[in-house]
């Protein structure tokens, strides 16, 4: 099972998605018997790579946010300590 095959949500895999959809149109019955399996495997690999890239970017972004929050907490703690 794969996520919805929308090109705008998966720009890294757009070419493979188009090939896969074309294969399904060209082989309406053959798709049930493995005619598009190789493309499906490529698509799954591409989705995994895309997810890894997104996961890494999200982790970096969350790391920056945590650092920013920590510095804000220190600043507020220091300001409260002065009073």
Q: Which key features would you list for this structure?
A:
single chain; mainly alpha; 83 residues; 2 helices; 71% helix
Topology:
Layout: H1 14-26, H2 37-82
Helix pairs in contact: 1-2
Overall shape: it is rod-shaped
Which residues form runs of ≥5 with pLDDT under 50?
none
Extended strand count: 0
Rg from alpha-carbon coordinates: 23 Å
Domain count: the total is 1
Q: Number of helical runs?
A: 2
Sheet of most strands: none
Given helix and strand content, the structural type is: mainly alpha
Helix share bin: over 70%
Distance between the termini: 59 Å
- Note the beta-strand portion: under 5%
Order of helices and strands: HH
The overall pLDDT average reads 91
GO cellular component, one term: mitochondrion
Protein name: COX assembly mitochondrial protein
Family: Belongs to the CMC family.
Subcellular location: Mitochondrion
């Amino acid at each position: 099972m794969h996520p919805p095959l929308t090109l705008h949500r998966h720009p890294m895999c757009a070419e493979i998605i188009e090939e896969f959809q074309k294969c399904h149109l060209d082989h309406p019955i053959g798709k049930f018997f493995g005619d598009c399996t190789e493309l499906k495997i490529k698509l799954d690999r591409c989705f995994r790579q895309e997810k890894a890239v997104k996961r890494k970017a999200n982790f970096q972004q969350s790391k920056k946010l945590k650092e920013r929050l920590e510095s804000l907490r220190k600043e507020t703690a220091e300001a409260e300590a002065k009073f």
